[in-house]
Design brief:
The protein has helices at residues 13-29, 31-39, 47-73, 109-119, 136-154, 156-159, 186-201, 225-234, 277-300, 307-324, and strands spanning 91-92, 101-102, 209-213, 221-223. The chain is mainly alpha-helical and 349 residues long. The chain has a two-stranded antiparallel ribbon. A two-stranded antiparallel ribbon has the order 3-4. A hairpin with a 7-residue loop joins strand 3 (209-213) and strand 4 (221-223). Helix 2 packs antiparallel against helix 3 (47-73) and helix 3 (47-73) runs antiparallel to helix 7 (186-201). The longest helix has 27 residues, at 47-73. It is globular.
Length: 349
């Protein structure tokens, strides 16, 4: 069975597990670009932009956990602490459209366009795409087709035969926006997929809202990821009655360009001498980030309560990234920044 682009569909449990591992890699791939945009912002003068980017970053972590729940539910083994999770920048979304290149950028027009390309909604009639997908929604639509097909042909008991003790729930992960959904059957699997897609694209592909309440403004409905980035681009909030066609017509969002650290894009540790302060700081960051991946992999493979340990590492990463972004890079007026390079376990400090 083939999709419209000729890529093989999800016909077996192994196919499904492979695609759900790709989903984990996809969700993880969004995190470093969001981190760079967020940590380059001075919260004292760009509080609203920090809230917007920070809220999306937290929900991308939720999506990563939901993808792991899905893979565990069908008997897979989530992999995070591996070199393929951190290829050199720039690189494309895992198994996605090669024309979309992910960069490590400070907040600004280029970063906004990158984040819009990541979160772009699929049109209502867009086909499911199993590989080389044009939008994240089309990729998850292919996974939905696979889940429904296999549940119908093999039976839900066979498809969802994973260990329920590996499932994360709200006790383990309180994200603020969105819901942590344990997966144990087709209904809960489809709910987890819908949570990921709706938070990213908006409800029913025709609305800017994702169905939740805004974490920072509980009196407002929450805007989906794509449209939160549109708010930053347009400098204005969406309000009740606004649509994707009208754009945002609500309160202004102001960004102070003087409160953005001018991080040099797509750095590597090899850009700096081995004994330099910047390189040592970048290597420390990479060790911390790989510790985060190790803890997440351990969490998703039978130790759900360890998710709490990752929060402390996230705080350390924030401090390390912000310190790097205050060090002159030696190239024009730019600063250093994190490089997100995988470190083999035997070389970690």
């Amino acid at each position: 069975m083939l999709d419209t682009s000729g890529a093989q569909a999800i016909d077996t449990l192994d196919d499904l597990r492979r695609h759900l591992q790709w989903a984990i890699e996809l969700e993880h791939a969004t995190i470093p670009p969001y981190m760079c945009a967020l940590y380059s912002l001075d919260p004292s003068c760009n509080a609203e932009a920090v809230q917007v980017i920070g809220s999306v970053l937290v929900e991308e972590m939720l999506h990563l956990a939901l993808a792991a729940n899905l893979l565990n539910a069908v008997g897979g083994k989530p992999v995070l602490d591996a070199p393929e999770l951190l290829p050199p920048y720039p690189h494309s979304l895992p198994h996605g459209d090669r024309s979309i290149q992910l960069d490590l950028l400070p907040f600004g027009p280029e970063a906004i366009e990158l984040l819009l390309s990541i979160e772009e909604p699929a049109s209502a009639d867009a086909p499911a795409e199993y590989d080389g997908y044009h939008t994240i929604g089309q990729f998850y639509a292919a996974i939905e087709v696979g889940l429904r097909t296999l549940a119908d042909t093999l039976g839900e008991e066979v498809v969802f035969g994973g260990d329920p003790a590996r499932q994360l729930n709200e006790v383990h992960f309180s994200s603020g926006g969105g819901q942590m959904i344990p997966v144990h059957d087709l209904k809960s699997a489809l709910a987890a997929l819908a949570e990921i897609v709706t938070q990213g694209e908006g409800a029913a592909k025709t609305e800017v809202w994702d169905g939740d309440k805004d974490v920072f403004h509980p009196d407002r409905d929450q805007v989906a990821h794509y449209y939160r980035i549109v708010e930053l681009k347009e400098g204005r909030r969406f309000r009740a009655g606004d649509t994707p066609q009208t754009g945002p017509t609500g309160d202004p969002i102001r960004v102070d360009s003087d409160g953005i650290l001018p991080m040099r894009p797509n750095q590597r540790t090899t850009d700096y001498p081995e004994d330099s302060e910047i390189r040592r700081a970048q290597e420390e960051f990479n060790n911390s980030y790989c510790l985060l991946l190790y803890l997440l992999e351990d969490t998703f493979n039978g130790s759900p309560s360890e998710i709490k340990e990752t929060f402390g590492v996230m705080y350390a990463l924030k401090s390390q990234a912000q310190a790097l972004m205050k060090m002159p890079s030696g190239v024009g007026s730019t600063t250093a920044g994190p490089t997100f390079e995988w470190v083999p376990p035997e070389l970690r400090a």
